[in-house]
Automatic annotation (TrEMBL):
The keyword DNA damage does not apply. Residues 41-353 form the Dihydroxy-acid/6-phosphogluconate dehydratase N-terminal domain. Keywords: Iron, Iron-sulfur, Lyase, Metal-binding. This is Dihydroxy-acid dehydratase. InterPro entries: Dihydro-acid_dehy_C, DiOHA_6PGluconate_deHydtase_CS, ILV_EDD_C, ILV_EDD_N, IlvD/EDD_N, Sugar_Degrad_Dehydratases. PANTHER family: DIHYDROXY-ACID DEHYDRATASE, HYPOTHETICAL DIHYDROXYACID DEHYDRATASE (EUROFUNG)-RELATED. Signal peptide: none annotated. It is an enzyme of class 4 (lyase). GO terms for molecular function: dihydroxy-acid dehydratase activity; iron-sulfur cluster binding; metal ion binding. Belongs to the IlvD/Edd family. Residues 363-557 form the Dihydroxy-acid/6-phosphogluconate dehydratase C-terminal domain.
Length: 575
């Protein structure tokens, strides 16, 4: 059933013969538009997260014009709507403070304007979940267009990966194995073009998820930002969204529990960022679906990591992944884990979208029997330290920490930990468990990416490069190491992590999916009775609203009032 022009949402603005619509029409003419340009045509909002201070989105200003070309060709009218850019590289304390802000902005931009369908331009970490969460809540036809990964980094004849090589060479500098001059070379060579981080960080993870859940044109998430194919992806998305409006193909018709399971399977096979968990759960809950940590645990046991992209993979980057066949080829190699009949923005099924996809380099995109890691990328652990769950990335850590016991060294804030790890006389051994608390959704605030806690200098000088680390923070998708993250409930609100003391023994068993502190229930009860909640972080502004309404990590860290089942649905504007 195709929509008729009178049924378009925008017709309520432009159609009626009343004074209010006279105002809308005359003001459209003020912008130089003739009635022929809007009458009976889908009006497409291009929600653009371009900004002068987001290097990952530098090209989106120009790409919006390419999207517009596609929309015009297909008989729509493009309207560009700027939105907050959530720039991972610059925003403090963390972009995670602003993911829900972008989601609200996206939803309200689309609701309050005469928009029939939307193209969402983003890609830098939180921008993908932010844009899609908002569009899911608004539920008008939409396509997500990823910014695309940047080109590989280069330094002294070697390839550099975003994030991952910053951490690696920083530790080498601190261990004294490279010079300041080398370090300056890394700084100049690690980010060579516009586009998002080109490791399998949160950006590449989330754009792969947007595609595999059905919201991006097939293959779109693998195209490097600097490739002319990216320009063509933009115009094609513009052409397609106009058709989607006529077909009324909305997120609620695309997103099902099965499509989210496809996204989880793909995330696992890609060696995804730990952030995928929080964002996918939040997206699923916006769609009114029960997506939980259990789904990740379930797929983690079944789907091996076959995308050989750093940091879980050994050597390759997103550019290599694209040349090797990209996400369609990867999906082809895990077909038996996918629901192939799910519908996507193409109006076709996953099976149709991946038909004919081929792997051109089977070292980059492996078969399952030659997997990079036998299980999925992430493991969900529970125990008396984290009753609601926490996360570790078993494929990207020293395997000896999969089962480990050691004494905790606990820090209550980042600055004191940062100072301590530089002390070469710090009382710490390779068996210790380094712990940071007050870094969760409320405590951080905003759950900053501090979770790859810095290795103590004393251990680095001993030649040690990994140890067990534990926090209620997140970590960058480009990070690696034996880091337990997202401990829920967080310490700041009185989760059991708040009761852990230096010297307590922490035991982890990843196979058994357990994490515990060896402290008796009676002792924990006594410590709880003596626990004093920390003071509130904000008394006014956005931070105040954030801390009033942010939820815990294991349910996606969305605002409670944005949940689909929170109160009656928001009605359409009536006059
Ligand atoms: Fe933007 Fe990594 S900083 S994607
Ligand atoms: Mg990141």
């Amino acid at each position: 059933m195709r929509k008729s022009p009178e049924e378009l949402r925008s017709a309520r603005w432009f159609g009626p013969a009343d004074l209010r619509s006279f105002g809308h029409r005359s003001r459209a003419m003020q912008m130089g538009l003739a009635p022929e340009e809007w009458r009976g045509k889908p009006i497409i909002g291009i929600v653009n997260t371009w900004s002068d201070i987001n290097p990952c989105h530098t090209h989106l200003r120009a790409r919006a014009e390419d999207v517009k070309r596609g929309i015009l060709m297909a008989g729509g009218l493009p309207i560009e709507l700027p939105a907050i850019s959530v720039s991972e590289s610059f925003q403090k304390p963390t972009t995670m403070m602003y993911r829900n802000f972008l989601a609200m902005e996206t939803e309200e931009l689309l609701r309050s304007h005469p928009i029939d369908g939307a193209v969402l331009l983003g890609g830098c970490d939180k921008s993908t979940p932010g844009l899609t969460m908002g569009a899911i809540s608004m539920d008008i036809p939409c396509i997500f267009v990823p910014a695309g990964p940047m080109l590989r980094g280069h330094f002294q004849g070697k390839t550099l990966g975003s994030g991952s090589d910053s951490w690696k060479y920083w530790d080498e500098l601190r261990a004294g194995t490279i010079t300041e001059e080398d370090w300056a070379g890394v700084e100049a060579g690690i980010a060579r073009s516009h586009g998002t981080c080109m490791t399998m960080g949160t950006a590449s993870t989330m754009t792969a998820i947007a595609e595999s859940v059905g919201l991006t044109l097939p293959g779109g998430s693998s195209i490097p930002a600097a490739d002319s194919g990216h320009i063509r992806l933009c115009s094609e998305s513009g052409r397609r969204i106009v058709e989607m409006v006529w077909e009324d193909l909305k997120p609620s018709k695309i997103l099902t529990k099965q499509s989210f399971e496809n996204a989880i399977a793909v995330a696992m096979a890609m060696g995804c960022s730990t952030n995928a968990i929080i964002h996918l759960i939040a997206m699923g809950r916006r769609a009114g679906l029960d997506v939980s940590l259990d789904d990740f645990e379930n797929y983690s046991r079944r789907v091996p990591v076959i995308g050989n992209v750093r940091p879980t993979g050994s050597q390759y980057l997103m550019e290599d992944f694209f040349y090797a066949g990209g996400i369609r080829a990867l999906m082809g190699n895990i077909r038996e884990h996918l629901h192939l009949d799910c519908i996507t923005v193409t109006g076709k099924t996953v099976a149709e979208n991946i038909e004919g996809a081929r792997v051109y380099n089977d070292d980059v995109i492996r078969t399952q029997d030659r997997a990079i890691y036998r299980e999925g990328s992430l493991a969900v652990l529970k125990g008396n330290l984290s009753p609601d769950g926490c996360v570790i990335k078993p494929g990207a850590m020293d395997q000896k920490f999969l089962k480990h016991s050691g004494p905790a060294l606990v820090f209550d804030d980042y600055p004191s930990m940062k100072k301590a790890v530089e002390d070469e006389n710090l009382d710490i051994t390779p068996d210790h468990v380094l712990v940071l608390r007050n870094a969760g959704p409320q405590g951080g605030p905003g759950m900053p990416e501090w979770g790859m806690l810095p290795m103590p200098k004393k251990l680095l000088k001993m030649g040690i490069r990994d140890m067990l680390r534990l926090s209620d923070a997140r970590m960058s998708g480009t990070s690696y190491g034996a880091c337990v993250l997202h401990v829920s409930p967080e310490s700041y609100v009185g989760g059991p992590l708040a009761l852990l003391r230096t010297g307590d023994i922490v035991t982890i068993d990843v196979d058994a999916r357990r994490i515990d502190m060896e402290v008796s229930d009676e002792e924990l009860a006594a410590r709880r009775a003596a626990w004093v909640p920390p003071p509130k972080r904000f008394e006014r502004g956005y931070g105040w609203m954030f801390s009033q309404h942010i939820q815990q990590a294991h349910i996606g860290a969305d605002f409670d009032f944005l949940r689909t089942d929170f109160g009656a649905p928001v009605s359409e504007p009536v006059i």
